[in-house]
Amino acid sequence: MTDLSSLAGRIVLVAEDEFFVADDLVHALERRGARVVGPATSVAQALRLTEATPALDAAVLDINLKGEMVFPVADALSARGVPFVFATGYGSEVLPSRYSGRVRCEKPVDPDDVARALMREARN
What we know:
Layout: E1 11-15, H1 19-31, E2 35-40, H2 43-52, E3 58-61, E4 64-65, E5 68-69, H3 71-80, E6 84-88, E7 104-106, H4 111-123
Parallel strand pairs: 1-2, 1-3, 3-6, 6-7
Antiparallel strand pairs: 4-5
Helix pairs in contact: 1-4, 2-3
């Protein structure tokens, strides 16, 4: 069983443009003790939040935010060594090769499954 407190005190960015999905993700992460930044609904907003949060510990990224691919955010997180998972309706074929090994939770997502996947990534 996954330790439900493994996100306790961690700062997690949520980048998701679908209100109900974002709300479910935020609540699932907060139940595990995370402090959520966002949800960011655009790539520009996610980048601003990433830059404004130096102590960012992890992130959940929807691949498409309002028609724009989230890879610039993934690049910024990777450059800082911040673990993240994708929560998306897109297949793995849209991922650039540099992200082919990243965890991808398929929509419709179970927010608890996303939280567990993020906890595993954050531990690594």
